Amino acid sequence: MLEKMVGQVASVNTSPTLSAKLINVGFFGCMWEVTPNRYGERGNNRVGEQFTLPAWISGNCFWGV
């Protein structure tokens, strides 16, 4: 399921802007890229940074999409 979501932006609580784009799905985790904050300026200085999350948490970011 997550492979179909690569390139999509989702709400991610661990992102400094609370928003990130899924860029890669691996066997043990997923790579995310910080996207601009939709609600203000907080964390926008970290846009473009990448971070990983376990696949089970990444799947929850798209729940209901």
Please characterize this protein's 3D structure:
A hairpin with a 7-residue loop joins strand 1 and strand 2. It is elongated and about 35 Å long. It has one domain. The chain contains 1 helix and 4 strands; from the N terminus they run ββββα. The termini are close together. The chain is mainly β and 65 residues long.
The largest β sheet comes out as:
4 strands, antiparallel
Radius of gyration: 11 Å
Shape: elongated
Low-confidence stretches: none
The percent range for strand residues is 25-35%
Mean pLDDT: 92
Strand order of the largest sheet: 1-2-3-4
Q: Structural class given helices, strands, pairing?
A: mainly beta
How many domains? The number is: 1
Q: In angstroms, what separates the terminal alpha carbons?
A: 12 Å
Q: How many DSSP helices?
A: 1
The count of strands amounts to 4
Give the helix proportion (percent range): 10-25%
Order of helices and strands: EEEEH
Please give a quick description of this structure:
This protein is 11% helix and 32% strand. The chain is mainly beta and 65 residues long.
Question: Features of this protein?
Answer:
65 residues, mainly beta, 1 helix, 4 strands, 11% helix
